[in-house]
Amino acid sequence: MKGYAILLIIVICWTFLCGCVTLPTGQTQITTTPQITTIVTTGPVAFVILKARAFDPSTLPIKAGTTVIWTNEDTMLHHVVHLPEVNQAKLFDSGPLSPGESFSYTFREKGLYKYADPQIGGGQSQPPRIIVE
To answer: In whole angstroms, what is the distance from residue 119 CA to residue 78 CA?
Structure first.
């Protein structure tokens, strides 16, 4: 019986010591938490879905000040890249969007804005477009 008591004390001490581990000097413990990104807009919003290697809708008329949110509902990575006219600067490039990720851009000036995904025909004859009225 005395042997069980000693064994129990050793197990308790060992458990306590295992829980009290410190890192060597100069090292820090890094914990990661998932990042949740929320798109917050203050004006009107319009949505474009990327699915089946296409944009839906492919033509979107909106008013100036509208934020367009593209969401990748496909099974592959996509990009949303502005295709500027000769007299325009490149306004947006989403970078890679994994399935389920979104990208937004607020259109402040009237005009025609063509865009595409270079992976699915960035130079196609009729690229998708935003028409800002």
So the answer is: 7
36 has pLDDT over 70: no
Residue 7: pLDDT band with limits 50, 70, 90: low
Closest CA to 118 of 79, 72, 91: 79
Structure tokens at 13: 């001490």
Tokens of 78: 């996509």
Long-range contacts from 109-115, C-beta under 8 angstroms, 24+ separation: 109/64, 110/64, 112/85, 113/82, 114/82, 114/83, 114/85, 115/80, 115/81, 115/82, 115/83
**Structure token digits, residue 32:** 């990661």
User: Cβ(38)–Cβ(17) under 8 Å?
Assistant: no
How many other C-beta atoms can be found within 10 angstroms of the C-beta atom of residue 14? Answer: 10
Q: Domains plus CATH for the chain?
A: 45-132 (2.60.40.420)
24: which DSSP letter? P
Q: Which tops the pLDDT comparison, 24 or 48?
A: 48
Closest CA to 132 of 41, 64, 83, 75: 64
- Residue 11: in which H helix or E strand, if any? helix 2-18
